[in-house]
Amino acid sequence: MAALAAPWLAPWAAQVQSLVRIKIAAASNMKFVLADLVSQYRQQTGVQVDVNLGASGNLARQILQGLPVDQFISADEVWVAELDKAGRTVDAGQRYATGRLALVVPKNSALPLSQGLAAVVRALKPGDKFAIANPALAPYGVAAVEALQRAGVGALTTKHKVLGDNIGQATQFVATGASQAGITALALAQAPEIAHRLQVLPLPAELHAPLHQRMVLLKGAGAAAADWHRFLLSPTAQAVIVRHGYALPQ
Question: Any idea what the CATH number is for the domain that residue 73 is in?
Fold first, then answer.
């Protein structure tokens, strides 16, 4: 069997693999890349990976409260460290990607996107909204706040700011026109499923601290989850991650 020859796989029988399901909790910025990776992995191994998406902070808290998952894929390293400190993980985890931010406006927007973040915020009208992920829950929200500050914009006013529960929701606010602009994950903004509804400007990496993304296996995870975890660190998976707009882990 060709799939069984893959270096990240344990030498299991295909019949056994086809019965295995892995449950993972993953940051919302990983929605589209994980859809590709889960599909590819199932085709190669027969193993089904069930994905629970959300803000990293919310997911980490749910895991601490007993959410039954084998793996946590965070948008940063802080929440993995929290779970490690609480004794819920097998180790400190591994970096799997470095995220990037993008400034987005609806496709038909007249806002001066090409002029950058400060120009877009200055051009907002009194009733316009600017969407970011909730920085109390989502690492991409923290990075968005930092980008606004470093761009010279400062804190958004209450009348302009709208917070998504996670970066996926913040992106949807802009894609649907509920918000006139926002900051999201580049990987979400350029995904074909949503890119046709947005104008997208990647933001310079120096506008925020590096978004080092880390994943970890939780205590009790079995061999199937360990194989999936190794797959995500393989050159095959890393190529998919880069294609979706991430940088390789540093």
Answer: 3.40.190.10
Residue 249 lies in a domain: no
Kindly state whether residues 131 and 194 are assigned to the same domain.
yes
**CA 102 – CA 25 distance, rounded (Å):** 24
Q: Please tell me the distance from the alpha carbon of residue 230 to that of residue 214, in angstroms, as a whole number.
A: 13
* Cross-strand bridge partners of residue 26: 53, 73
Do 128 and 180 belong to one domain? yes
Task: Retrieve residue 94's tokens.
Answer: 């591994």
Measure the CA–CA gap between 179 and 35, rounded to whole angstroms. Answer: 26
Residue 46: give the domain boundaries. 3-98+212-243
pLDDT tens string, the chain, 250 residues long: the values are 344 446 555 554 444 445 789 999 999 999 999 999 999 999 999 999 999 999 999 999 999 999 999 999 999 999 999 999 999 999 999 999 999 999 999 999 999 999 999 999 999 999 999 999 999 999 999 999 999 999 999 889 989 999 999 999 999 999 999 999 999 999 999 999 999 999 999 999 999 999 999 999 999 999 999 999 999 999 999 999 999 999 998 7
Contacts of 171 (CB under 8 A, 6+ apart): 104, 131, 164, 182, 184, 185, 188, 189, 194
- Cα–Cα distance list, 247 to 46, 55, 98, 240, 242 (Å): 29, 20, 5, 11, 6
